[in-house]
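Question: Now follow the chain.
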Amino acid sequence: MATSEPTPAKKPATPVTDDPNGRVITSPAIRRRAKEAGIDLHEVPGTGPGGRIQRKDFDNYLKARASGISLAAARGPSTAIREIKVIGLRRIIAERMSRSKQEIPHFAYVEEIDITELEALRRHLNSRKASSSERLTLLPFLGLALIRALKEYPQCNATYNKDRNLILQYDAVHLGVATQTPDGLKVPVVKHAEMLDIDGLANEIRRVTQAARDNSAKKNELSGSTITITSLGRLGGIASTPVINMPEVGIIGVNRAAERPMAYNGQIAVRLMMNLSSSFDHRFVDGYDAAAMIQRIKEMLEHPATIFLPD
């Protein structure tokens, strides 16, 4: 009796997966559904081999989109980890910050200042400037007030030489200006700031900070400060605890200015308020002296004409 050979089972059709044009890996059925729904398959996360979009992947994406879930949520949590070596300037910054916090007992002091009158003066002076590049920020006013206050509290205009165990107290004010740059935090220095008027100080602050940002600053312009001011501008927040720029013994931080209702002359009035956040090396600057110096700066900034009075 003749027997017929068994008919070989048909292999399932292999779906189109990818092509040289860079299309995603998926089946024709899902590709058709995506076209009908107006969905770019490049946006659909695939969990199959080689990132293949399976039916469940497409269904989950449709559900996520319909419910307003973000694409990131539809893809699930990321397990990616990036290794970033701490080298160059970032490593130097990290080491200096660590040493400063480890070796220096920081004394922090925050003071609230009414700068309504100061802002009015700043705006008036700026209205007389021919170029917007010459306009004054708050920093040169703070710098002048700090310079005057340091004459009364010279112990704050000093550096500590650890190797010789000496405090070096300066007549000159070499003003460091902490500056955020694409390479990290730098502190360019305005040398002999005590010799400059408001416009000269503003110009030098602009010059050295720009030089720090574009890497044109000379080596001596990035060292030798005796005290530092730092500002985060509009990101300044309510208060901060600035880290002392070793080997200095003090740093003054400027926080964001904002209008607030305040008690003023027995009434509630809207005033422009700003906090100064300062840190001092408590080994060499007593808390009373640190607070008194900030109070002196507060007095001058709240009565800005006094900043310009002769000594």
Observations:
- The CA atoms of residues 155 and 169 lie 6 Å apart.
